[in-house]
Design a protein that fits this description.
Layout: H1 4-13, H2 20-41, E1 82-83, E2 86-87
Antiparallel strand pairs: 1-2
Length: 93
């Protein structure tokens, strides 16, 4: 069973303001959760293989390979208006 001091410490860490009536209920609920974990710890898992995700499926996307992309200067040749090395755009306002 969780004592009041531990409950107040956890509430402070979680930044929860506990009201007087909530303390008993929360103490009981957290105690039940901790009792369940104690029950789970008693299970024999000696010969159980570890699982990760529950499936043997592999990722189907391509391998991530580093590369270089040099698109410098490409595209402006298709721009309609140029002036002095700059691209002219219509005024926005």
């Amino acid at each position: 069973m969780m004592n009041k001091k531990d409950l107040e410490h956890l509430a402070e860490l979680a930044r929860i303001d506990l009201k007087a009536g909530e303390e008993k209920k929360l103490q009981k609920d957290l105690g039940a959760i901790l009792d369940y974990f104690k029950e789970l710890q008693e299970l024999d898992t000696e010969n159980v293989d570890p699982m990760a995700g529950g499936t043997d499926l592999k990722n189907v996307v391509r391998e991530d390979v580093a590369g270089t992309a040099d698109n410098t200067g490409k595209g402006p040749e298709q721009f309609p208006d140029k002036q002095g090395g700059f691209l002219k755009v219509p005024p926005v306002f």
